[in-house]
Amino acid sequence: MVDPGNVKGKCLESITDNIIQSMAHHIAVIDQQGDILIVNSAWSDYTRINGGDPEETGVGSNYFTVSDRETVRKIKTVLDGTTDRVVVEYPCHAPREKRWFAMNVTPLMDFNRNNIIGAVITHMDVTDRKLLELRQQKDLDMAKSIQKRVVLEPIEQENITVKGFYLASDQLSGDLYAWYKISSHQYGVILLDIMGHGVTAGMMSMAIRSMLEGIITDEIEPGKVYLKLNEQFHKFFKSGRGYKNFFCTGIYMLIDTDEKSISYINAGHPGAVGLSGNESFILSSANPPIGLSKEPDVKTGKVQVSEKTKLLLYTDGFTDSMNMRLSDGESFILQEMHLNDDIHEHFEKIVSDLNRKDDIAIVSVSFE
Amino acid sequence: MFSYEIEQESERAKVTFEGDLDIDCTETIEDELIPALTGYKSVIIEFGAVEFVDSSGMGLLLNLVQSLKDEGVSVYIRRVREEVMEVFDLLQIPEILGRHTFVG
Asked: Taking 60 as the threshold, does the pLDDT of residue A242 lie above it?
């Protein structure tokens, strides 16, 4: 007499086998010892096409003996239940073709789904994705090197030093700084933080960078520089979906070494921290970010200094990466400024040691 | 991870935000929330469970509020955390959206 349960079981077994055999990925099932129990035809074909011996990786052979030690270790973490899944990407280049595969290992449970009795190993051809990633990486590396090339040399003169330092959270930075000698005793220094980060912010920062020298050397005064930048933002960057509220924060200072003054404008940017002798000051924001308001009221400030003066400008990535609120960040920076006369070296080290969430840029200025 | 929940009461809607507001919320805000909230007379955005807003998130919030206002919807943002309000103030968001937009 035919057992209907047995017929159903055989039927399911046959369907399962057909599914495995029909899959394009290379599939093998191993037991706890690494012995291969099942392979599909894609697995066997691949071994044959690549001149391998199907005996070595076919049913009855041991997968651990043909795998490197690290791969075996990873497979065993699935077999002993330490991990639910292991994915390993590896190159598998043919003489005339570059190829990459991803090995995916998942546990094979017993009938009651209580115990791990083996593992299912799948190899997928990921060459197309890998090639795309490599091309993108190459493009990003090139863009990054272009962005680095447009960073200005520091100003290191007898009476004034201006230096900058940035670290990008992605390949490209949306933070941007520049400085220009306007006359024998006037220097324009600017730090901008473009909204967002990554490729878009990096591209925007390069576009803005190309305008800066003209704007700063023509307009000179902080209020005029801000208005001109704001105008350019509205003109060039604010059309199209997603760009309606595109903006950047920034701080621009006009330093006059004869007058011993700092005229500045801060547009939604964290306050620059200054120390002149023992007197400290903050160049706080009093204006909306560049690009957010069509006709902003302009509020500029001016600080008169008498002694040797140090200033640190920074983007909010600095305080965010330290999990500090803006006000706490100002106190921290001021406290640190007292510790080392070379504030640039001091803060560059602090920034380099941080676990960054966002782009970080700092600009340090010292003048007599 | 950002999420939101809309509670509606006739012509008014209350939308509760939770999580960080950043660039990952772009589709959620632009493709889901703006169309979903357009048509109400007034919208209250509960902001108390938002701990962090980056510059992209700030742009999205401005876009949301301004798009709704352009459609004649009154928008109010409620219970902004102190540390988030510090950033809003730095960027003069209350001046841009109107001080009355921010309530309790």
From this structure: no
